[in-house]
Design brief:
Blueprint: E1 10-17, H1 21-31, E2 35-39, E3 43-47, E4 55-58, E5 72-79, H2 83-95, E6 102-105, E7 109-115, E8 121-127, E9 135-136, E10 139-140, E11 145-146, H3 149-153, E12 170-177, H4 182-191, E13 195-200, E14 204-208, E15 216-219, E16 235-242, H5 246-258, E17 263-266, E18 269-273, E19 279-283
Parallel strand pairs: 1-4, 5-8, 12-15, 16-19
Antiparallel strand pairs: 1-16, 2-3, 3-4, 5-12, 6-7, 6-11, 7-8, 9-10, 13-14, 14-15, 17-18, 18-19
Length: 284
Amino acid sequence: MGFHTKPATFVGHVKIKVEKLERSLKFYQEILGFGVLEQTTTTAMLTTDGKTSFLSLEQPENVIPKQGRTTGLFHFAILLPKRSDLANIVIHFRENGIRLMAAEDHQVSEALYLNDPEGNGIEIYVDRDPSSWIWKDTEVDMTTIPLNMRNLLSSLVPGESWKGMPEGAVMGHIHLHVTELVQTEEFYGKGLGFDVVNRYKEEALFLSTEKYHHHVAVNIWNGIGAPTPPENSVGLESFTLILPNEEARLQVVTNLKQIGAFVKEENNLFVTHDPSGNRIKLAI
């Protein structure tokens, strides 16, 4: 998992908004196997190791259900350490009657897709060995074909079963709905320093650092000109990018200002938002 440590720039934390915190906590604890690191009446920081958090929940004041056809979260993606972890959670989902939205082979990875009780999209995946990824110049080949579930389950280890989200899990990437792609590419490329590593038709961009298949993806599947959702609606609150060092962060801040992007300092972090209103925190 060297793509989620220095010198890469990667998604270190995602904060999502939910309508009913207790209902969501039940799902994230009992079904996805997270622990709770910290909790208030309206927020919860989730953990796999009892020390750190890469996912948190917030119940906004006067919260409203997730709004359709807007910008914001398509899904956040949890990267598991081993293929057998993915196989184990498939069995766990089956035993608990959890319905998958999809199960797909992307050539670079194998992935399961589902929604939480609030409609927030979740991907749970495992990477194939990077040596097997096929690069054509600066772009990596990615497919979307049905996952060979029988082959995946062949990786099950006798005596091993799902015992909760593994300590080695990380936030692998985030995929966002945006309002358009031209200014969005400039923001994530010239502003944040990501490289476009795959262009899906004229509908989506996959971006990364250090030749990962993607740390961030953006799409216009909710329509060009899709509006920003209300602040109190279920969905994405923000995500945090981890930069290698303070010098790199200050360079990103300079780059964002040069392209006219919003950026400000807030609680020892720099905060920006992309042209579609997706809120991003810049940390080191």
